Amino acid sequence: MTTLMFEIAGLWLLAILLGFPLFASMGLAAFAFVGFGGLSAAIVPQKMVQAMNSFPIVAAPLFILMGNILSAARLTDRIVAFASSIVGALRGGYAHASIVTSMIFAGMVGSAVADAAGSGAIEIRSMRRAGYRPETAAAITAAAATIGPIIPPSLPMVIYGVTADVSVGRLFLGGVVPGVLMGLSLMVMVAFMARREGFARHPFEGFGHIARTFRDGFFALMAPVILLGGMFSGLFTPTEAAAVATAYALLLGLVIYRTFSLRQLPAILVETAETTGLVMVLVMAAGALGWCMSISRVPQTITPAIMETISNPLVFLLVCNLVLLVVGCFMETLAALLILIPILVPAANSFGIDPVQFGIVMIFNLILGTVHPPIGVVLFVVSRIAEVSFETMARAVLPWLVPLLLVLAAITVWPPLTTWMPGLLM
Q: With DSSP H G I counted as helix, E B as strand and the rest as coil, what are the percentages for the chain, rounded to 5?
């Protein structure tokens, strides 16, 4: 059956390259395996339903709903104003503020695309008014948006945790330090570029201005604190945190800031259902195909082959980085995770690599693909917002990948960056 699975996998990959919908190609591959393998076709829908029978995956639609509500409630302006009041006086202050905003926004929405779409317009507008070139402003915004899925909450971490049977809470905790390092590394890059490109330095408006912007955005700024504090303290689980976050987003929009109307809710619910449907159908199809790979012993065949070729865990991680970086350039993050987890995670476990570290490394690599052509979904979003061509964006973002790759290298070679906080708090 191993040979049959490899043959079907080859045809499946060919179908993807020809542009066949990913979820459909995965489902058809699963049906082909059970059909040619003499098994009952009823197994496939059973495994699809079983893939959905997971409590942590309930967090996915709730986090999507929360992000949509926060975006509709226009809370970004308050967060950007506070970030600008803190770091705006530095040389390249608006660029620093863009990065700080993305770090705060990351603790609310957990998606690179949502971060870029939610805060990108005001960040780019502020930088352009300060004299930044449009492509430079757009590149900084796109690079900062990659922090979104690393600092918790994070939809890719939920999907990885469910698929690889890893604690979502530990994954959330494991992403905090790398996410902060991403922000700091980008700010160092801004400081370097500021001198070379002559970014302006703006007068410090005083601690009173910081206090006013903090007061204006206080409840929005408390969203990450409530989420992370509740999870770290054990007050609620990551899944329950998604429900708390959604309720809090509604409270902010409807009651506190009154920037959200109940008339907007039906459209938001429809948009959330559409996005959730796309995610869930991928999870279901991947669950069925993953079972086919397992029953055909594909991981058990590939893992020994990898271990015979590679004997050092660090070399394995470096090879995975190269593979994942390439895959991330051509495939959407969640789809790539669902395809590669059944293949790479067993091999990582065999090398004794911590599953939290490996999960963060996988997600980090694939997220970088969102700001790199030819797919580069974040590049498409930001290029539309900034009214800059995709080709210009692709060239402008390249220098900003350097600090992110350095952080990736750090979490690859030094596991405590991803395992220290989960070990301390859980």
A: 80, 0, 20
Domain span at residue 183? 2-8+21-425
- Among candidate residues 287, 283, 279, 277, the one with its CA nearest the CA of residue 44: 287
| Residue 15 within a domain | no
In a domain, 13, yes or no: no
35 compared with 375, residue with greater pLDDT: 35
- Position 412 scores a pLDDT of 94
**Which one-letter amino acid corresponds to residue 11?**
L
- Apex 16 CA angle, 362 and 373, nearest 5: 55
Within-domain flag for 300: yes
Copy the structure tokens of residue 253: 């929009």
Rounded distance between C-alpha atoms, residue 230 and residue 397, angstroms:
36
379: in domain: yes
Domain count, the chain: 1
Question: What separation, in Å, do the N-terminal and C-terminal C-alpha atoms of the chain show?
Answer: 41
If one counts every other C-beta atom within 10 angstroms of the C-beta of residue 210, the result is 16
Alpha helices in 53-167 (DSSP H): 59-72, 76-87, 93-109, 112-129, 134-145, 155-164
Whether the CB-CB separation of 378 and 116 falls below 8 Å is answered with yes
Band of the pLDDT at 286, cuts 50, 70, 90? confident
Which pTM was predicted?
Answer: 0.79
- Residue 148 Cα distances to 108, 132, 285, 362, angstroms: 9, 24, 26, 15
